[in-house]
Design goal:
Layout lengths: L3 E4 L4 E4 L7 E6 L10 H19 L3 E8 L4 H10 L3 H18 L7 E4 L4 H13 L3 E4 L11 E4 L37 E6 L7 E3 L2 E5 L1 H13 L3 E7 L3 H16 L4 E7 L3 E2 L2 E2 L10 H6 L4 H9 L8 E2 L1 H23 L8 H19 L4 H21 L4 H18 L7 H13 L8 H6 L4 H16 L3 H13 L2 E6 L2 E6 L1
Parallel strand pairs: 3-4, 3-11, 4-5, 11-12, 13-15
Antiparallel strand pairs: 1-2, 6-7, 7-8, 8-10, 9-10, 13-14, 16-17
The chain binds adenosine monophosphate and zinc ion.
The site of zinc ion has 3 residues, from loops.
Length: 500
């Protein structure tokens, strides 16, 4: 059965299948690379990963595009504060984002598109909008030899504005929701397509003037470049519905007169301890924060995927512990089942139980990606199989069938195969490089062999090696310690060490 997914545009569950019968073309708004990703961001990217993985499990081919916003106000501000051009500032955070995706086993989209690499496409879209009367320029002719014109979208030229979020246009007036700019706009509701830059800011010299693109323009231009004027699905967090996605629709549809996307998916915002996550509230967590506290990447993934995307997830540490235990149960069961020595054959009751679990699992995901309901039949099956193993009634054919069901579960949930060591190791290496070892939970240091006692033991071994004139070994230990951020100094009264 095809997936039925809630469509923000139609306000109902609609079947999601490739409109060209071949490949599902989807666009998901990506990160603004000015900082490390937080668990709210990853909640959204993980739910899009659930969608991706489930479609693939059903045999659907996908062409998934994600933008990387590598120029915007925050990036310009942060890069200026760091005293580097934006092109030197963003790669670190883009790399960190890709590493975090890998840690959480989020599949990469087929295409990543950086905003700064698509300026000509954006300029072209502004020109097309101007040609149909939907874009205008303000503040032109500054008189100082530079061209300071900003371009705006004329909302009055797009009467169906608001159809996605069902916002009443009359309600959209001044305030935080509209771009504030130094230049006169024809209407307070009009939004910026292209921003004139102030001296010293990053800018591009183009036929529409010297400036930089607005964020909304970027997504419209890149989505249409890689997916065509009209594609199957557009996704993002619920905060993007208005104004970002409305603006994308207005920009694209004003020139194409075709629906930008048939289907719109929005992931509900995550709360932490029942509150909006914010740095000032002290409940703000990046993925790295949680890994350094000793939580496993798989547990973080499990906690963030197990609540369906349209439900409000309240993230708590108890929830993370529950996820850790749930994964343990699955991994322990799989190891036990694989080790068991079983006779050939199959059991009717267990084969039926496996079929039921698989059917229940698929039915739940087909129904608007209900991950919570999809988990239940899998854990029921594990409970039943554990009892059957206790009783010795499992046969080899049952094992095969049950492992096949679990493989389908893991094709989407991706938590059973234990790949937890690397993300934790990488987070620790990152913490060392940033001088953040004081943020690392003691158990993480123990796992990675970095407690004070471990260090003392290595130094003792090095002293012995030196006494035996085994300099190869003693150098090796010095290098190993250095790689773990520990510097040793040979002093008269012995060896002193400190963490970098
Ligand atoms: P940003 O880098 O802020 O543009 O956000 C990247 C993605 O994360 C967007 O799809 C946002 O909608 C989403 N997002 C940001 N905060 C949260 C949150 N607290 N819960 C869920 N999604 C979020
Ligand atoms: Zn976007």
């Amino acid at each position: 059965m095809p997936l039925r997914l809630y469509n923000t545009l139609s306000g109902q569950l609609d079947e999601l299948t490739p409109s060209d019968g071949k490949e599902l073309r989807m666009y998901a708004c990506g990160p603004t690379v000015y900082d490390y990703g937080h668990i709210g961001n990853f909640r959204t990217f993980l739910q899009i990963d659930v969608l991706r993985r489930f479609l693939r499990l059903q045999g659907t081919r996908i062409r998934h595009v994600m933008n990387i916003t590598d120029v915007d106000d925050k990036i310009i501000r942060n890069a200026a504060a760091a005293g580097v051009p934006i092109g030197e500032y963003t790669p670190l955070y883009e790399r960190a984002f890709l590493d975090d995706l890998a840690s959480l086993r989020i599949e990469q989209p087929e295409i990543f598109a950086r905003a700064t690499e698509h300026i000509p496409e954006m300029v072209d879209l502004v020109e097309r909008l101007a040609a149909v009367g939907a874009a205008y320029r303000t503040g032109d002719g500054a008189g100082d030899g530079t061209d300071h014109g900003s371009w705006y979208f004329r909302l009055a030229a797009f009467p169906t504005y608001g159809k996605l979020s069902k916002k009443d246009l009359e309600g959209i007036t001044d305030g935080a929701r509209v771009d504030v700019d130094e230049y006169e706009k024809d209407s307070a509701r009009d939004f910026a397509l292209w921003k004139a830059t102030k001296p010293g800011e990053t800018s591009w010299e183009t036929v529409i003037g010297t400036g930089r693109p607005g964020w909304h323009l970027e997504c419209s231009a890149m989505a249409m470049k890689y997916l065509g004027e009209s594609f199957d699905l557009h996704a993002g967090g619920e905060d993007l519905m208005f104004p970002h996605h409305e603006n994308e629709i207005a920009q694209s549809e004003s020139v194409t007169r075709k629906p930008l996307a048939r289907h719109w998916m929005h992931v509900r915002f995550l709360l932490v301890d029942g509150r909006k996550m914010s740095k000032s509230e002290g409940n703000f967590y990046t993925l790295r924060d949680l890994l350094l506290k000793g939580y496993k990447a798989s547990a973080i993934r499990m906690a963030l995927v197990s609540v369906p995307y349209r439900h409000q997830l309240n993230f708590t540490f108890e929830g993370l512990t529950e996820a850790t235990n749930a994964i343990d149960r699955l991994r322990t069961f799989v190891a036990r089942l694989k080790k068991a020595s079983l006779s050939e054959g199959t059991t009717v009751a267990l084969q039926e139980a496996a079929d039921r679990a698989e059917a229940g699992y698929f039915a739940a995901l087909e129904n608007d990606l209900n991950t919570a309901e999809a988990r239940a039949p899998i854990f029921d099956l594990v409970r039943m199989m554990n009892s059957a193993l206790d009783l010795g009634t499992v046969l080899a054919g049952d094992r095969e069938r049950v492992l096949a069901v679990l493989e389908k579960f893991d094709a989407v949930f991706a938590v059973i195969a234990d790949q937890d060591a690397e993300p934790t190791r990488a987070a620790l290496a990152w913490a060392e490089s940033q001088g953040l070892l004081d943020k690392v939970a003691p158990e993480v240091l123990v796992q990675q062999g970095l407690t004070d006692a471990d260090i003392e033991a290595l130094i003792a071994e090095r002293n012995t090696a030196r006494k035996q004139r085994n300099f190869r070994r003693s150098d090796e230990i010095r290098d190993e310690l250095a790689a773990k951020g520990v510097i040793i100094e040979d002093a008269k009264d012995g060896v002193r060490w400190k963490r970098k």
